[in-house]
């Protein structure tokens, strides 16, 4: 089944085709030919940079401009035409309402014209399932750490589509904390990856920040206090290049440590040794190394998508949508988006594998 995936929830236009492989005459999909046929992402970073953050109306308009050319480009790269598509998946939420509506409108219209089913995908489920596109994918049950610009969540995955929230941030998301901290120290938007790159040159241990909420039981996070600590340290410093790198290193170590401590606790709570990490901050090298260490110590494993599939992309939406379409799930031809959406409300996916 060849599924076109469309992601437009924020400031990246993502398009991909995921192929679940040929369907046998007896019904279930045959494995082997499955895989990501093509994927392309157009980032709006340059558009929003001068404003220091995403401007929703500009984001919507740019999705309108870029989506159709990107669909054409992706299909050409996959060696396919629209007639080859068996279904369309799009991000239906959470996200910016105008941006979501662009993707939903195009996806629904295309599916209507091609007379194929379409399914609205939960953006965070897309992130969560992205590691399953890699070789030797983990099988549920496992614990997932979702760390993006808008979310920081620990989720017990009992089965695909069956999610229990174990903990989440009470204020800023991890990616948001990276971005805001970077901005405070004068780095351009989006600061997360730049702060991480700067931290590479930082001296470990020169600045030691708190590991918020690790001194008490529980799986929730809070990053806004850490941000304030960094602001004070930066304000009272000599503000040299080296100091900026040293503070960046101290901040990154504090976030990575905090996430790692809570992941260990979540694995204990869920009785699992498999942790899946997804979302933009999952591209962070030090976080990847640290969680791999923790999992190895427990005799388990840490699974990540390749870095390009950690940040927003159409591949994860094509893949998550393909699983649902293959299980017979799709909705009526209605352009409906859900800007706020609880992942625990999703229906389980019964796979015909
Ligand atoms: O998942 P994503 O692309 O978009 C959302 O759904 O929010 O995540 C973007 C977030 C941004 O906050 C960005 O700064 C952060 O992920 N990010 C990173 C790194 N790469 C992206 N944070 C830390 N280290 C990185 N290497
Ligand atoms: Zn995302």
Descriptive report:
By secondary structure, the protein is of the alpha/beta class. The protein folds into two domains: about 1-130 and about 310-345, ATPase, nucleotide binding domain (Nucleotidyltransferase, domain 5, 2-Layer Sandwich); about 140-305, 2-Layer Sandwich (Nucleotidyltransferase, domain 5), CATH 3.30.420. Helices cover about 40% and strands about 20% of the residues. The protein has ten helices and ten strands. The strands form two sheets. It has a five-stranded mixed beta sheet, with helices on both faces. Strands 8-7-6-9-10 form a five-stranded mixed beta sheet, sandwiched between helices. Strand 1 and strand 2 form a beta hairpin. Helix 2 (about 55-80) packs parallel to helix 3 (about 95-115), helix 5 packs antiparallel against helix 8 (about 240-270) and helix 6 packs across helix 8. The longest helix has 30 residues, at about 240-270. The chain is globular, with a radius of gyration of 20 Å. The model is unreliable at about 25-30 (pLDDT under 50). The protein binds 5'-O-[(R)-(carboxyoxy)(hydroxy)phosphoryl]adenosine and zinc ion (ZN). The site of 5'-O-[(R)-(carboxyoxy)(hydroxy)phosphoryl]adenosine has 19 residues, from helix 5 and helix 6.
């Amino acid at each position: 089944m060849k599924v076109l995936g469309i992601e437009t929830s924020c400031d990246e236009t993502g398009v991909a085709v995921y192929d679940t492989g040929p369907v046998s005459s007896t019904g279930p999909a045959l494995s082997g030919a499955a895989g990501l046929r093509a994927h392309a992402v157009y980032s709006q970073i340059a558009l929003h940079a001068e404003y220091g953050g995403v401007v929703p109306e500009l984001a919507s308009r740019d999705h309108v401009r870029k989506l159709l050319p990107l669909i054409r480009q992706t299909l050409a790269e996959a060696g396919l035409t629209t007639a080859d598509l068996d279904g369309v998946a799009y991000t239906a939420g959470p996200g910016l309402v105008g941006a979501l509506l662009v993707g939903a409108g195009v996806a629904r219209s295309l599916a209507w014209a091609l007379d194929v089913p379409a399914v609205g995908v939960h953006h965070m489920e897309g992130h969560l399932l992205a590691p399953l596109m890699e070789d030797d994918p983990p099988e549920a049950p496992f614990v997932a750490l979702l760390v993006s610009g808008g979310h920081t969540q620990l989720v017990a995955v009992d089965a695909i589509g069956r999610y229990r929230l174990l903990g989440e941030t009470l204020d800023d998301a991890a990616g948001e904390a990276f971005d805001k901290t970077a901005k405070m120290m004068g780095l351009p938007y989006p600061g997360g990856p730049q702060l991480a790159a700067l931290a590479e040159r930082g001296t470990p241990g020169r600045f030691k920040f708190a590991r918020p909420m690790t001194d008490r039981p529980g799986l929730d996070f809070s990053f806004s206090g850490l941000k304030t600590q960094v602001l004070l340290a930066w304000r009272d410093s000599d503000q040299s290049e080296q100091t900026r790198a040293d503070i960046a290193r101290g901040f990154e170590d504090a976030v990575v440590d905090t996430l790692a401590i809570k992941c260990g606790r979540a694995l204990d709570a869920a009785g699992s040794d498999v942790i899946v990490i997804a979302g933009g901050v999952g591209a962070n090298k030090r976080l990847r190394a640290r969680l791999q260490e923790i999992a190895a110590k427990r005799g388990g494993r840490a699974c990540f998508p390749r870095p390009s599939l950690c940040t927003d992309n159409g591949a994860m939406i094509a893949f998550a949508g393909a699983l649902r379409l293959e299980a017979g799930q799709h909705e009526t031809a209605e352009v409906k988006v859900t800007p706020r959406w609880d992942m625990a409300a999703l229906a389980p996916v019964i796979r015909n594998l």
